[in-house]
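Fold this complex.
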Amino acid sequence: MNLTLPRFFWSEYRKRRKKASLITFALFWGTLSILLLMAFGQGMTIQFKVAFSGLGETLIMVYGGQTSLEFEGLPKGRPISLYPEDVDYLKDRIPEILRIAPESYNYLQVSANGKEINRSVHGTTAEFALMRTQVPQLGGRFLNADDVAEGRKVAFIGWKVAGDLFGGGDPVGKQIIINRIPFTVIGVLQKKIQDSMYQGPDADQIYLPFYAYRQIDNRRRINQIHIQPHEAAQSKLIEARVRTLLGRKNRFVPDDRYALSFWNTIEDAKEGMAIFKGIEIFLGIIGALTLLIGAVGVTNLMYAVAKERTKEIGIKLAIGARRRVIVEQFFLETLFVFAKGTFWGFIVAFNIVHLIRLAPINYDSFGIEAYLLRPELSLQIFAAYMAILGVLVFLSGIFPALRASRSNPIESLRYE
Amino acid sequence: MIELQGITKVYKTGSQILEALRGVSLKIGRGEFISIMGPSGSGKSTLMNIIGCLDTPTAGEYVLDGDRVAGLSFDQLAAVRNRKIGFVFQNFNLLPYATTWENIELPMLFDGKSGQKRKKRVSELLNAVGLYDWRSHRPSELSGGQQQRVALARALANDPPILLADEPTGNLDSRSGEEIMAILTELWKAGRTIVMVTHNDRIASYSRRIIRLFDGMVQQ
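Structure:
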């Protein structure tokens, strides 16, 4: 029986809550929309990061090219190639480099288990795995330093290659023949989503120790060099140093944009992230606008409540209610209406996100579903949602509350 | 206790100006029982509203308990209404969604009294007006006489020294009216100042002084 103002306000609100049912639904819908849109937005951003890191994180790839400027009497149009010794040459002279690896590749005939396929075969070093997200499936491994140093006849293969050659069986320990040379499979790549690639997805590639690869492809040139900086911010500096050093070695102007070419995934990732962040914010705004419709409904409701309760407000003012009490009551009621609608919106959104995340991603046909099937309801989204909700509750409640609290007691008492 | 000096109240509606009170001066001492009488439109309710701090005069000075009312803010006036004045209206003005108990408790809640104190006081008042068994009922479940008794209990919740009753028996049958007047008389005997608006001579006879208003002025 002991009454408090909030309890009294609640008992008054309960008598009228049925009138708020449509608005409750609008708030439910608004909450559901904003949370789902934000969850999908953030999920896409995260999946973009994951898909992008499928190629590699903080990675700079260097390719040879052709000079476009004359240099000390040498004509333009000279081809510039990369060689295995460039790897140590750069590593010794650029302290900002954390990891560096050479890579050569060619389409070669590969056979095993009575099957024959044509695949891109690569020669590289152990550090490649860390730079290019080459995570082995359980029971296998990537190439190590000894494999490379001793030119061991071992191979690390993509999961599609494993499927094509060995069906469902475990290829680790089995032999594959490349250019009539047998290689033992030491590991299979774990499934991953990958949106950036050069010789096709890693699922379709075969990796050999660098010097073992040279036995089946004896070109002296290498196709590219992979560089990982200590810090992502150093990527542009490293690019400049590589141009200067290789320019000095190969005799071209460091400013010659065509002598070497770079694929700077750090810069690409920045652009990609900016686009996805933009989409995320855009979706959030759409969601917020949907919730705003509900909030406008609440404001309308509270104005109607203020009018309907004119006499009651007059009675309360006559028996000594301060303005604050009237404002508090309207605010609390606004909060009750919001709480009811938004609570269920939150619960349904949470469950929808949870259910969607249970859907499997088809790694073999990387598509739009890889971005859409992993919505993310993070703490960050919840905080953003609560901030938007807080502003809307305040704006929805304040104007009707102020109008009600400024009522003239006598006029309110006369109101019928 | 209540001192009005040259109170004027003017209402402006568009180009029309209505003088509801024209230079009303009167003194009401502590413990008096006064009736304000007069025909419709004489300014009785306006005077009552000003005395009750529900309205402020256009001109003149109102001193309540030694304090000038003119300088008080909206919330200070609310505090005066809450602690010093109890209102009883002709049409009861109870909160329809609140129970008898809650209606009586509300002024104390607005005053910030503790739960224990409120509980004790509501029980006392319910027993005093004979409605303890009706404490969980809503106004619509009570008779007019019962509703007015709830309104009286609510007016007394914060134990105010002044009770303002605007046609307290106007909507009641004669028996219920007599009951209400009996309670008011007892309250007056216990030391409370009572100011009552009525146009019923028999009801006015319960008071000890009658002030008659005509055209917004006190008739001598």
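Residues 121 and 157 of chain B are 7 Å apart (CA to CA).
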